[in-house]
Amino acid sequence: MTLNQEQSEKNIAKKEIESENLEKVPVKVYIKAKSKKIKLKAKENAKILKEKSKELSKNIIIQAKIVGQKIHKISQDTQRKIHEKQEEWREQNRQKSRENEINSDHEINQKDIRSDPPKFCPFCGQQVSPGGKFCPNCGNSY
Ligand SMILES: [Zn+2]
């Protein structure tokens, strides 16, 4: 069988496969054509999969960025609240010390002045004990 003959036989077989008139197709050619189809399909699927995973990882990066921005904002808000609370505390303390001067009630108020400013959890804003290490509210270390 010459190359041309083989080629034309294959082409006929191909047409028969496409028209699903399979009984005319030699088994070998049929299997070859089928496996070629399967290989092509697998290649195609791999390509689709690759593209999808690319898209997915892009989305993950975007999501991570969004989450990061949210965390940053929450942390900034919490820091601001802590700052406000500490300012409030300082103001109260100033008022107390003024009252202290007026009342000269040293024993109670001097204790307040000597105490450290209150500490707040940098993660959730919960007031925490200055000597502690972990937030009783969210469990983060501070
Ligand atoms: Zn906390």
Care to describe what's here?
The chain is mainly α and 142 residues long. The protein has one domain. The protein is 72% helix and 3% strand. Strands 1-2 form a two-stranded antiparallel ribbon. It has helices spanning 3-18, 27-103, 106-114; strands at residues 119-120, 127-128. It has 3 helices and 2 strands. Bound molecules: zinc ion. Residues 121, 123-124, 126, 135, 137-138, 140 line the site of zinc ion.
What summary fits the major beta sheet? 2 strands, antiparallel
Given as residue ranges, the uncertain stretches (5+ residues, pLDDT < 50) are: none
Structural class: mainly alpha
Question: What is the total tally of β strands?
Answer: 2
**N- and C-termini, Cα separation:** 84 Å
Mean pLDDT rating: 84
What is the CA-atom radius of gyration, in angstroms? 39 Å
Strand order of the largest sheet: 1-2
